[in-house]
Amino acid sequence: MSFRTKLLLAFAASTLISLAMLAMGIRRQLTSRLVAQHERRVEALARVAVEDLSRESAAVAARLQTLARSLADDNRFRAAARGGQGERAYLLDWAGDAMRMTGLSMLQLQDDAGRILSSGHFRNEFDRLEPELPRLLAMASGQVTVASIRAPSGPFLALVREDSLTVGDRRFTLVGGVTVDRALLGRFARDGEVSLSLVTPDGSVLADSAARTDDRTVAAEQRLAYIGARSGDSTRLASAQLMVTHSNTELEALRRDINRWFTVSLVAAAAIALALAAWLSAGLSRPLSALTSATSSIQLEGPELELATGRDDEIGALARRFGMMARRLRANVVQLRDADRRATVGDMARQVNHDIKNGLIPIRNVVRHLAEVQERQPGELASVFGDRRATLESSIGYLDTLARNYARLTPRVERRLFDAAAVARDAAHSAGTDGAAVQTRIADGLPPVQGDPVVLRRILDNLLRNAIESLPPGGGSVSLDAQRAGAGVRLIVADTGRGMTDEELSRAFDDFHTTKAGGTGLGLSVVRRLTSDLQADLRVESAPGRGTTFTIDLPLPLPA
Amino acid sequence: MGLLCALTAVAQGCTTSAPKGVSTLGPQPACLVGAAPATAPESIFVATIAPLDVTHAPHAQNSGARFAFAQAYETLINADCAGRAYPGLARSWTSDDSRTRVTLSLRDEARFSDGEPVRASDVVAAWRTTGEMTNDVGQIARRLADGATVVNDHTLVVSLPDTQSLVLAHPALVVYKRRGGAAWPDGSGPYRAADAVPAAPNTLVMIPVTPHMGPRLVIRSRREADARDEIDAGADLLQTADPVVLSYAAARPGIAPIPTPWDRTYLLALPGGSATMPLAAAGADSAAFRASLARDAVRGEARPAEPPFWWNDAGGCALRDADPSPTERRARIVYRRDDHVARELAERLVALGGGATAAGLAAQDFNEALRAGRDLGYVAQLPTRSIARCQDLAILRMAVPWLAPDLLIPLVETRGRVIVRSGRVAGTIDWDGTVRLTGGAGRP
What we know:
The structure holds two protein chains of two kinds.
Chain A: H1 3-72, H2 75-81, H3 88-102, E1 106-110, E2 116-119, H4 132-140, E3 145-149, E4 156-167, E5 170-179, H5 182-188, E6 194-199, E7 205-208, E8 216-231, E9 234-247, H6 249-297, H7 314-376, H8 381-407, E10 416-418, H9 420-432, E11 438-442, E12 449-451, H10 453-470, E13 478-485, E14 488-495, H11 502-507, H12 523-533, E15 537-543, E16 547-555
Helix pairs in contact in A: 1-6, 2-3, 7-8, 9-10, 10-12
Chain B: H1 3-9, E1 32-34, E2 43-48, H2 63-72, E3 77-79, E4 85-87, E5 90-95, E6 101-106, H3 120-131, H4 136-146, E7 148-152, E8 155-159, E9 176-177, E10 186-187, E11 191-193, E12 203-208, E13 216-221, H5 227-232, E14 237-240, H6 243-250, E15 255-259, E16 264-269, H7 278-284, H8 287-297, E17 302-304, E18 330-336, H9 340-351, E19 357-361, H10 363-372, E20 375-383, H11 389-399, E21 408-414, E22 417-421, E23 426-429, E24 435-437
Parallel strand pairs in B: 2-13, 2-14, 18-19, 18-20
Antiparallel strand pairs in B: 1-23, 3-4, 5-6, 6-8, 7-8, 9-10, 11-12, 12-13, 14-22, 15-22, 16-20, 16-21, 17-21, 23-24
């Protein structure tokens, strides 16, 4: 897990846990207060609804009282009440007009026999005998009363009151009321948080302010008088209940809203916290990442890398320190490279010396031989010269090639097909002329190999000379084998000389390591490098007193 | 056209037999309204509370259109408010001994509104065109056209279905000529529509066929308006039965409410007979009961309906038997919602007991309910008199198949009034209550 991720998680966790605890606490408090407030509000609404009903009943009574006073002063009514046919139409229409003016939904004017003289809600109800309604209303004695009232299109429920007046010796009764329906109860229910229902004792719903649902609970009840229940052929006074119920649906919806908003707030806060954490952790880790990237891409020999050292914090100090370190390293590298270049020039000088020496040795030997022949057998000089002429020419050619290679300063290994067996014969022949016989075993039909024949010659010259020099005086043998080995040609240079210990063997290819007096210590080092140039495989086996064997596997050229 | 609409148009029939010999008498003085002004006004404003539906010209669908068409189209003869015939498109007529064949002479100067003279063949052609209609109007016209004989351009012999020549005053028998592309057919009346399409909604302007020969008519329909506002706004002519409006008009100077004929009879139709309604059995068909209804239950002018009733007399008419009425009925008394007299009667019947309720229906719904006969009772109206009794009985039977005379209990008769502004309008009240303007561009 990266430092940045750890930083992010730590920051987010600490923020989220704090936020969640805060949100849960607030939500709990808010919900409990909301429930308490809702309950108080429902109680208040229920109380107001019941009071509204009583107030409406009182308002009906007040309007009836006003109508009774007005009617008592009405001469046309007086004339009609006395039986005047001329005012009969006025009497029939009086209740309708009065009802419209007072805003009542029903109005009846009855005489002392209970005969309807004028009916507003139902004009043509006149002359009907209906004494029960005022009688039962009188029995209710001011109690809030609802009654089932007849109408052409069917009965309706009304909140009713009664009043009376006397004209002459006749008593008249006024019964009036307002419709109790969903609209009226809905008005009493105010904002609809509570519902009002008028229910008879047997559970029949006379009216309600809203469609009934099962999830409602009773908040208040008020007993009313109800005229409408039938008892045989007559109507009787019964009781009804005004039930104020409320539903928890709205409260639950409010709770859900709170939860939803808290969730939304929490998620939003978490998102903001995460974003903030990401921003801060990025602010910390980005310069570190940049520093890491810079260190991974730093090149001591390339152009100097710019580091963000403008910051004045710890990261800026680290970058500045790192820059200083890089500059010191670059200076050291320059010094090292200069020393290496100087060492390389020395190596080359030593190698040139060594190579020229290798080329001059056969010539020196031939010249000594010719000198001896001239001194001892002068007549044979020409013949011996003829015999050794090839050796001279070979050595001269070798030196010539060597000179051309060094003339190019950076000799390149040629990549061409050549006959390794021929090179091996020349090298063995050349080494054999130095006084030790080299047993040569060259297999027939060896395939050409790819590389530089001069490089192979230099390898074999070095190995054969080392082998010959390792032989004890007057004994031992050196052999050179060339044979097919798998996909290439194997050359084996073996001697029966003194061999090497394991320690000697482990250092045999190191530069300037030699066990010979006057040796340069570069022979095997050069062999290793040249073998690598040929992309050949070099192995060595040696044991003290048992000689040494070098095996070179030359690869065949890849098919085109 | 629904049954009751059709029959409402045939409001008052003849009380006299067809005259024998030449007849050229004018309308009864009692049927004249207003007096011809000394100087004809530029415009006469007519107000109506009925919708002004003129799409079926020349056949009216309501009283508003009936007034307009009465000024533009003519029947061969007219019938005044007393049920007496007076000349229309025919200046005179004679009948034979059987009094079922009438020879009519057209006015020499009668012309359609496009200037072409009206010939006897045009009369028959108009009836044939009307006869192509599949409704009740078409039925009357088809029968008359089949029995008509053109003697010459001005003489026509018509075979009547019975001895009542007043059938020729039936609005279904107006004479007109269709002209391609015209919204209104050409008529022979003194007025024509000023525009094919009314210039303003619910307003129709009619102009004299002869230019500058009389005022133009501006007929305005205000269904939702208070008719008293129309009087205040200067309406010269208004027909209404609303007692409040009539009371108001009576108190205004220069305005005279003139009664129209008793033209509506309200009935209680009981599909199950009087036995299904205890109230009816207890005397709802008594004269005293009808009198109490007319006196107390109905606001407006009403009187008890008294026999004889034309629908009880099917003598000489070829009618098919009534269908049996449905046996299952709802306990309600149904009336047309826009008919306040029917509502008052229905409510009174409900108030008197029986356990039924009253239900007001829209016109179309009411007609369908009446046809079905699945209610306890229906308060409906019929023309008080018929000028084509057999045709109207046939139409009645077709519209309400279960209706038989013994299932009808007549209740009250009503009438309205024509409110006329003095010195502005002169005209004749016809047998169906329609005012036919006279003077100026109107008829002499």
